[in-house]
Amino acid sequence: MRWLGLWNGSTYLGYSPNAGNPKEYIADPSNYIFTCPGHGYVNTNKVVIYGDTVPAGLTEGTVYYVVSATADTFQVAATSGGSAINFTTAGGSACVVSTITEEVYAGGGTHTISSWTLGLPN
């Protein structure tokens, strides 16, 4: 499981990456760097980009790996430790980046969560 959908009865309310913490960022297509002050990511962290038009060359909801992480910047790669992906636009202003935790369950079906905290961008 990668994504969690939030429903109230039959009304769809939204979605969030599993164990996510959405953060706003600025994407610079001239050097393929995301600036996100104090992001806390380290190389090999799994992240997703979603919520608006993503930078061209990336796909919304795809799991990427953090590479070249510094305190305030990072790049993304298709594989852990891989080369940074070149993107050609900055994407939409409402787009966010978030960590994501992939979990595997033995069986399919509906999982009921009695308590959940939804992280919203700052």
Short characterization:
With 122 residues, this protein is mainly β. It contains no helices and 9 strands.
Explain the overall architecture.
A 7-stranded antiparallel sheet has the order 3-9-6-7-8-5-4, with no helix packed on it. It contains no helices and 9 strands. The relative contact order is 0.28. It has a domain at 18-99: Elongation Factor Tu (Ef-tu), domain 3 (Beta Barrel). The chain starts with a strand and ends in a 23-residue tail after the last strand. The chain has strands at 3-8, 11-17, 23-24, 26-28, 33-35, 46-50, 64-67, 73-77, 96-99. The chain is globular, with a radius of gyration of 15 Å. With 122 residues, it is mainly beta.
Helical segment tally?
Answer: 0
Question: How many whole angstroms does the radius of gyration measure?
Answer: 15 Å
- Major sheet details: 7 strands, antiparallel
Average pLDDT works out at 84
Please give a handful of descriptors for the protein shown.
122 residues; seven-stranded antiparallel beta sheet; single chain; 0% helix; mainly beta; Elongation Factor Tu (Ef-tu), domain 3; two-stranded antiparallel sheet
